[in-house]
Amino acid sequence: MEATTAMALNIEEIREDFPILHQEVYNKPLVYFDNAASTQKPLQVVEALTNYYLNDHANVHRGVHYLSQKATDKFEAARETTKRFFNAESSDEVIFTKGTTDGINLVAYSFGEAFIKEGDEIIISTMEHHSNIVPWQMLCDRKKAILRVIPISDKGELDMEAYQNLLSSKTKLVSVVHTSNALGTINPVKEITQSAKSVNAYVLIDGAQAAPHQKIDVQEIGCDFYVFSGHKIFGPTGIGALYGKREILEAMPPYQGGGEMIKTVTFEKTTYNELPFKFEAGTPNIADVMGFAVAMDYMNSVGYENIQAHENALLKYATDQLKQNFENVRIIGEADNKASVISFLLGNAHPYDVGALLDKMGIAVRTGHHCTEPLMNRLNIPGTVRASFAFYNTFEEIDLMINALKRAEKMLM
Amino acid sequence: MSIEEKQNEIIEEFAMFDDWMDKYEYIISLGKELEPIEEAQKNEENLVKGCQSQVWLVTKVIEGKLVFLADSDALITKGLIGLLVRVLTNHSPKEIMDAELFFIDEIGLKEHLSPNRANGLASMVKKMKTYSIAYSALNN
Asked: Which of A70, A155, A312, B6 is most buried, taking the most CB atoms under 10 A from its CB?
C-alpha cells in the first residue's frame, strides 16, 4: 500500500528489516552511506529468494506440471508489479534484464540495428555514467553515427539552452540520466523528452539513481525507454528492468537468440516470440525476479512521499553540517533539484585518503570518479568523496560521519 | 640489511600500534617524509595509473643495484609506496625478483595491494619486479 500522505517514518522499525546494518566494522558501528552504489536488502527480499528456492522452483513458461505453473504465475505476477512500478500501459512493455547497463546495451544494440543509420545523431549529457556513454559510442562506431553531448553548468545542471541547440532533424535518440550518480542532480526528464519529440527523436532515460528515491511514471515522462536496476532499489543483484514502448519494441530485432525468445524454429527459418519474451532469451533469472518484485512492494509500503521527505531532510542536514564544520569543504553538485547524494572534497585532501580513513572509522562512502570520468574532467577534479543516503539512514549516522571527517581532516591537512 | 630483514623491521615498527587510526597516522607521516621526486619526472612515462590515486615511479641503476624513487597524489598511498621503496631499493635485480613481500600482509594492509583497491600499488610492485627482470635480461 502506498501511503498517500507523508508521515514521519519510524526509522528504527525500518532498520529492523535490514540486519546487515546492525554490525560493527573495525569495532565501530557500521554507517552505510554507499547506497548509490548498491542498497542493502530487507529481510522480505531475502525471504522471497529463499522461499522461491525452497518451495517454488521450476523452470518457467514451458512446463505442464504444477511447480512450473506456480513459478510461471509468480514470475508473470512480478512483471505486473514492475509494470506498476514504471506505470507502463502494459506488462508486454516490461523486459527483465540483468540491470541498467544490460538494458542500455539491449537498446543500443536492437534499437540501433533498426533505427540508426550513418550520419544520425545521438545526444547524451556530460553527467552520464560510463554505461550510458560507452554503448552509444560502440553503436556510433558500428553505424557511423555521431555522438553529441549536452554541456552542464558549474552547479551541475544541464544546459537546457545548449540542449535545444543540439536537437535537429538528424537527432534520432536522446539518452540521459534521470538522477546523476555523482552529483545527485535530478534532470527535467519530461521537458527533455518533450523537446526531443519536437524533432521526432526517441528518448531513453537512465533511471538507476532515480528509482530508489522517487515514483517513476513513464507515461508522465513520455519517454520511449526507461531502465533501472534491482540492486539499487533494495532488491537482488543481477536483475533489472527495461521499459520500452510497445510499437518500438515490436520494430526492434531480438537482442540475443536462444530458448524462450522463439515461436518456431526450423533450420530454414525461425520466427520470434511475442513481447516481452522476444527480448528474454534463455531461462530467465527467476529467483531474482521474485526478490525484485518484493523490493518494489517494499518501497511502496514505505511510501515514496515518506522516502523523499526523510531523504531530503538527511541531505539538507548533511550539507549544512559539512558547510558548518569544514571551512574548506567543496560540495560538488549544487543543483536546485537534488537527490540524497552528496559529493564533496575536503580541502586538498585526496578522496582516496578520506575514504580509506572513514572506512577505518566504520563509515562506508564511495571515492573516485564514480564511473563518470568525462564529468570529473569537466569539473577539473580527480574524483570526489560521495555519501549517498537511503531511507534507512539516520541523522545520528551523519553526525558520526562528520566526527570521522574531522579526525581525517586533522590527519591529512 | 636484506629485504627480509627490512620487512621484519617494519613488522616490528607496526606491532606497537593496536589502533587502525594510529597505524594510518604513522603511514601518512612516512608519506610526508618520503624523498620527493622532481616535478619534471612526474611524467607519463613514470606514471603507474591507478583508478583513484596515481603513483610515479623512477628507477635508477647505481653500481648494479636498483634504486627506486616514488611519489603519489594521495598521502596514504604515498606512505605505503614509501614502505615498498624502503624494502626494495638498493638491492640487486635478482634479490628484487626473488623477494617475497610478506610484510604488507603482516601489518594488516593487504587490502591496499589488492587489484580492486585501485590505488596503483599493485601495479607499482609489478613494475618494480618487471624492471628487475628486464635489467637482469639485459645484463645476461
From this structure: B6
Q: H/E element holding B97?
A: helix B93-98
B40: cell is 619534471
Would you kindly state where each structural domain of chain A is located, as residue ranges?
11-32+303-412, 46-300
The active-site residue, picked from A354, A371, A376, A387, is A371
Q: What is the CATH number of the domain that holds B91?
A: 3.90.1010.10
Judge: A353–B76 Cβ closer than 8 Å, yes or no: yes
Query: Annotated catalytic, B15?
Result: no
Closest chain B residue by Cα to residue A350:
B74
Length of chain B: 140
Per-residue pLDDT at B48 exceeds 90 = no
Q: Which residues of A touch B24 (CB under 8 A)?
A: 356-357, 360, 411
Q: What is the total count of domains within chain B?
A: 1
Give the residue carrying C-alpha cell 553548468: A153
Q: What is the ipTM of this complex?
A: 0.89
How far, in Å, CA of B3 to CA of B128, rounded? 14
CB < 8 Å to B25, chain A = 411
Which residues on chain A are in Cβ contact (under 8 Å) with B108? none
A356, B24: Cβ pair inside 8 Å?
yes
How many Å separate Cα B16 from the centre of its chain? 22
Do A412 and B75 count as a contact with CB atoms less than 8 A apart?
yes
Q: A46-300: what CATH class? A: alpha beta
- Grid cell, residue A13, equals 522499525
Show which of residues 84-123 on chain B sit within 8 Å of chain A, judged by CB atoms.
112, 118-119
Contact B75 A367 (CB under 8 A): no
Q: Helix crossing, B20-33 with B3-15: angle to 10°?
A: 130
Find out whether A228 and A210 touch, Cβ atoms under 8 Å.
Answer: yes
Domain encompassing residue B90: 3-138
Peptide bond connecting A29 to the previous residue in cis, omega within 30 degrees of 0: no
The answer to whether the Cβ–Cβ distance between B21 and A361 falls below 8 Å is yes
pLDDT reading at B114 higher than 70? no
Q: How confident is the model at residue A163 (pLDDT cuts 50, 70, 90)?
A: very high
| CATH number assigned to the domain covering A11-32+303-412 | 3.90.1150.10
Q: What is the mean pLDDT of chain A?
A: 96
